[in-house]
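Lay summary

Proteins are chains of building blocks that fold into shapes. Our project writes down both the chain and a compact code for its shape. Here are two examples, one after the other.
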Amino acid sequence: MGPLAGVLRDSGVGPVTVVGIATDVCVAATARDAVRLGYEATVLVRAGAFVHAHPEGDRAALAELRDAGITVIE
């Protein structure tokens, strides 16, 4: 999981909002890691982009995030 757990814990972070270029790859993985660590996670879709820009794939990626307990704001 890398240094995310320590950075969040040591910084006293509450809920996590994740944005970035690869919404369906890096952003999704980071948001899932945050949830696994016990944080509430939100992904802001318009503040990023999909690597595999295909409408069906984009919808599926967002559904997977929601299923993982991540709030998705489009």
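And here is the second example, written the same way.
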Amino acid sequence: MIVGGMSDQPQPHLRPEHQLQHQPHPQPERQPQPERQPQPERQPQPERQPRPTPRTAPEVAQEAAEVRRFQGRFGLPGLVDVHTHFMPERVLRKVWEYFDGLGALTGGLEWPITYREEEDRRVARLREFGVRAFTAMLYPHKPGMAAWLNGWAVGFARRTPDCLHTATLFPEEGVHTYVQEAVEAGARVFKAHVQVGAYDPADELLDPAWGLLAEAGVPVVIHCGSGPAPGKHTGPEPIGRVLARHPRLPLIVAHMGMPEYEDFLGLAERYPQVRLDTTMAFTDFGESFAPFPRRALPRLAALGDRILLGTDFPNLPYPYVEQLYALERLGLGADWLRAVCHDNGARLFGLE
């Protein structure tokens, strides 16, 4: 996205060339004025739609206490959140502008950002919430961007030890090289965004990179479902072709694959290395446009060791704790909740 701006140009300094002396002269006779024609009625202007107002971030101590009470109820030593967003500030600001403008990929949903804060404040919030480990889900929307984002992520991981070193990729020449460099630099998780990137995950340019990640056992959080708005290559079929070629690729399907929940549960049932994250699923917001089918709850329960907590922090249109309450409301039991909110992620990333 390119945002243009206008700079104010200096205006020429205007001054009279000469002051003319006033010379009296006879006034002409006043001519009769034509009758004023009635003006057409002013048509009412359409109301301008208000821009979504960012929600005020909840008071830190109060919300942190709510999150920690949730952890206490279920004996959790903390949370492992596999779907949080950190990226270069100017890129993140553009993402927020896109949400503010109700961009097409938001599905026209009003999406006020709850945690519109500076980076250090956002990191501090997660720590106050008791999040033991989180990610920096960053993603390119065009060629030539992924390697630069990966370079930024190295620095962020160094200064933020509780962030799992995150990297990304895009179908382009050289992708195998920079993916290998990221893995060698210590990347522990990758992010792929099929909807925003508008690419086919089965693109042959990506095939060597998928093979490398499968061999290295590095998980990939991938937005490949068609929510909140479909893309050209979203849905289970394109990523299913990747898994057919690389069945050991450790994929984490973002947002539970919404709205194609049952199809993506099917992929997880077929491929032991496929997991799903809970980001926005089951919340009142998610249910308003992509309700989870109640008939699929037994399948969700059976996959309890491969469901991971994800939230989309900071790009949430509601408080962080709402994701936790939504999981609790499913009624799948304390063991399931402990596995999803902590144990599965801790085991996957070696935090135990």
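What can we say about the second shape? The chain has one domain: 60-348.
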